[in-house]
Amino acid sequence: TVEGTGWQLLFNRINTTGEEIKVDLSPLERRNFISFNGQLGIISQQFSESQKVLNVSPDTLFFDFATRKVKRVPVMFLSSLGFKKQFGQSQNIEIKPSFVTVTGPSEVLKKIDHWDTDTFKREGIGKSVTSKVFLKAPKEGNVSIFPNAVEVFMPVEEITEKELELPIKVINNPRYYNVKTVPNNVRVVVQVSLSEYARLDDTKLSAEVDLNLWESSGMSRLPVEIKNDNPYLKVIEVSPQQVDFMIDK
User: Fold this and answer.
1) From CA 52, how far away is CA 193, in angstroms rounded?
2) Cα gap 140→178, rounded to integer Å
């Protein structure tokens, strides 16, 4: 910010050619920053005699002399989502690029194992979503990331229900008892996307009972547990939830 007459400032703006300001770096021998407040006289001498430098903003320059490293970390997608009735996410979210490059002091980079996006918020989703999402800005001034945004694709489909009948498997039977459950099968109702409906069968899920619950706790009926490795396949009903069993020693 400079002070001068109106004509002086007007012609100075017209004739601006991107002048550089020279500063004294000798204070860096004692500290890691330069303050312009103590150098206004030196800076004023670099302008016209009819103009006076009042202040410089920002008034301080910080210098980072730490050893800088480069690290690739995965992107963590943060979201707050709401779907229309009978719609939901059907597959994994795709993030491009899925990794970003972080540059900064080695001590800081040791603590970074991923990088979060800004929280993506959307309600009433009824179709697949493609969006540019920015990454959270670094908290430290000496840390930078590249790129600063990613493209996110979230598959969304209509969800329906399907009923399956699963055979019951007995686990934790180290004595190899001959165990018969009553009934032998359970009925399971799941929510599944329309594209997966035809492919979903009794090989995608499994029903188990743990015989150790009888040996260790003396339970007379065993609870049925459904094993499901698909996070987008939701089990909403199991019948029966407990079964009787007979053991032939």
Assistant:
1) 71
2) 64
Q: Which residues of 8-19 are buried (b: 16+ CB within 10 A; e: fewer)?
A: eeeebeeeeeee
Output the six-digit token pair for 217: 């706790």
- Tell me the CA distances in angstroms from 94 to 33, 129, 164, one per residue in order: 43, 10, 30
The pLDDT tens digits of the residues spanning 147-188 come to: 999 999 999 999 999 999 999 999 998 877 788 999 999 999
DSSP-derived letter for residue 118 is: P
Spell out the residues 6+ positions from residue 86 whose beta carbon is closer than 8 angstroms to its own.
Answer: 158, 159, 160
In the predicted structure, residue 18 carries a pLDDT above the cut 60: no
> Hey, what's the torsion of the CAs at 93, 96, 98, 102, to 10 degrees?
-140
Write down the residue that tokens 């320059």 correspond to: 61
51-63 pLDDT, tens digit each: 778 888 888 888 8
Q: How far apart are CA 207 and CA 186, in angstroms?
A: 8
Contact 179/170 with Cβ under 8 angstroms? yes
In this structure, are residues 100 and 109 in contact, taking their beta carbons and an 8 Å threshold? no
